[in-house]
Design a protein that fits this description.
Oligomer: single chain
Strand order of the largest sheet: 1-3-4-5-6-7-8-9
Structural class: alpha+beta
Helix content: 40-55%
Low-confidence stretches: none
Largest sheet: 8 strands, antiparallel, barrel
Radius of gyration: 25 Å
């Protein structure tokens, strides 16, 4: 392998970003997303800490005349992280649970649907496309852990990571996904570029035994790191499978509610109430999505908003409020005039919500619209 200092530094930059990315994937589920200051501090710690670590590593090996170790670490770390995240994203596609397009989008005019909703609907509409996407991520992701096969896996993954990057870039997929897609594409490109002098020989041999100069102790150490990486993949895959097949009681109860509900009748302070088209606080239509962060509603003034629902099956209590910060992963911002606190009852397709909204007691009687159904798989 012939990579000069500049090429190595580019690789170290990508390696540092990839390291920060995997640390964030581990840290965010632990710290949660409620404390913005803690999130920003964690982000900065992971990014800055990763860069400092890899700068020190590069300085150490260059000082000791072992520049080839920088190439070894760049390729090793990038292929392991790329493999782990490909498996992480591939498993839910294999199970048909990744592209859960929104019921709200299905019940909206095409001109009112966002680019994100269009993209998710397109990729989730055909179950075979999602399955194929999962296979193209999962299988090459596994082979990235095999040194003799990582280059072939990188070539197979290049159209996949490029497509994910393009999808995130042009369809404005929010959250951490766009930075992740950019870093994974950079890893993929660097893995291919790292063997620029052997591309011609690629079809003759896929065995790139290029690190024979490593001492036995070094090999033992890196085998240990490899074992830890594989263990992390197994654990993350198990957690993914567990969340798909071993859902909690709360999740099961929520999934029973998934659907579109239209208001049939309403009581306000004990008497029948018919909301006018100017009423902005009464929920006309509720869209309970498979992923509750995307829940939407339509009010009687025909305005649509994201809403948050918190329910407790033990006492059938419920709390609904419009999230003025919109759907997705952003911090919930309460619209106090739309809060409903009370109880609910789900009887087949009938949903009854009784509670207090501001100073009024209300009873909302909804009926599920069975013409619009969430995506269902044959398995």
């Amino acid at each position: 392998m012939t990579l000069n200092k500049t090429e190595q530094n580019v690789g170290l930059t990508i390696t540092a970003l990839a390291t920060a990315l995997i640390l964030l994937y581990i840290a965010f589920p632990i710290i949660g997303t409620n404390n913005e200051i803690l999130m920003i501090a964690t982000l900065l710690t992971c990014v800055i800490g990763s860069f400092i670590f890899w700068i020190l590593v590069a300085l150490y090996f260059r000082k000791n005349g072992k520049v080839e170790m920088i190439n070894y670490l760049n390729i090793g770390v990038q292929r392991y992280i790329l493999g782990m995240l490909m498996i992480f994203y591939g498993v839910p596609k294999l199970l048909g649970t990744f592209f859960d397009y929104q019921l709200f989008a299905l019940d909206s005019k095409l001109s009112n649907v966002t680019e994100f909703q269009l993209a998710w609907f397109f990729y989730g509409k055909n179950k075979w496309l999602e399955l194929f996407s999962g296979i193209m991520e999962f299988i090459p992701g596994i082979f990235l852990f095999i040194r003799k096969r990582y280059y072939l896996s990188s070539l197979v993954l290049l159209p996949v990571t490029s497509q994910v990057f393009i999808l995130n870039f042009f369809f404005k997929i929010g959250g951490i996904t766009f930075p992740a897609a950019s870093i994974l594409l950079a890893c993929n490109l660097y893995l291919i570029y790292s063997q620029k002098d052997k591309i011609i020989q690629f079809f003759k041999s896929l065995n790139f035994e290029i690190f024979d100069a490593i001492t036995q102790n070094g090999k033992t150490f890196f085998k240990l790191l490899k074992g830890l990486g594989i263990a992390l993949v197994i654990i993350s895959t198990f957690l993914r499978l567990k969340s798909s097949f071993g859902t909690s009681t709360d999740t099961i109860n929520y999934q029973k509610m998934v659907g579109v509900y239209s208001l049939q009748t309403m009581l306000k302070n004990g008497t029948t109430y018919n909301p006018t088209t100017n009423d902005s606080t009464i929920y006309k239509t509720l869209y309970f999505e498979k992923q509750d962060r995307w829940n939407m509603l339509r009010r009687f003034n025909n305005k649509t908003s994201a809403f948050v629902m918190k329910l407790n099956k033990n006492d059938n209590s419920i709390k609904l409020f419009i999230n003025t910060n919109g759907a997705g992963d952003e911090k919930d911002i309460l619209d106090s005039t739309t809060v409903i606190i009370g109880s609910y009852k789900l009887d087949n397709d009938k949903l009854i919500i009784k509670g207090l909204q501001v100073k009024d007691t209300i009873e909302l009687n909804y009926l599920r619209n069975n013409e619009i159904e969430p995506k269902k798989w044959f398995w």
